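LAB NOTEBOOK - FOLDING QUEUE
OPERATOR: T.R.
BATCH SIZE: 2
PURPOSE: Compare the predicted structure-token outputs for two unrelated chains run back to back under identical settings.
PRIORITY: normal
REVIEWER: second-year student, initials M.K.

ITEM 1
FIELD SEQUENCE / FIELD STRUCTURE:
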Amino acid sequence: MDFKTATALRRLRLVSAPEAVSFLLLLICSVLKRTTDFNGVPVMGWVHAVLFLLYLVFWADAWNRTKWKWQTAALYFALAVLPTGGFFAERMLKREAEASVIAARARREGVVNA
């Protein structure tokens, strides 16, 4: 994996958890708006919108650089629209990055799969 691909995956991974947190906070603010006098929806709506758009931009960049199959790309997209999906995306991206580092190290050292 080259440096730009690793960077694209890292950016997507770093924005996925905050995007999930903002989604959950937006849902909580929506409930509080209807049950109390508290209205944090306008602020959390903007925060979540910015993080979601960043996720989409980084997702498209990672898809372009990693050459994922469309099923993998669709899974990462679907995780962005689920309330806790960003946490799962972060975990999956971390595993993918670790596996690619191990594979790159093995190639560099000349280790061949048996």
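ITEM 2
FIELD SEQUENCE / FIELD STRUCTURE:
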Amino acid sequence: MANKLKKDDEVVVLSGKDKGKTGKILKVIPAQKKVVVEGLNIIKKHKKATQDADGGIIEETYPIDWSKVQLICPATKKPTRVGFVVVDGKKKRKAKVSGEVF
């Protein structure tokens, strides 16, 4: 199956603690079916000090399952489902809401 979400896409979170928030995709992990969204799903990790680095509480952005996010249409700025269409022999994504090909 082709990946409907790509790096630098704008998405909205559909469920969980960050429901309704939007952000840009920083990384897509197809093997795990997860995406890392900028500024969302932040967790706190307690790191022990080492000789090289200081210890403390570090905030990290963790991956979200890609079924929990939905792409925002570039034309209408509304959440949309994604389909595919062939244009000039190349497979392109198409927004279901507006019909915009991108």
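REVIEWER COMMENT (ITEM 2): The chain has two domains: 1-71, 73-102.
FOLLOW-UP: none requested
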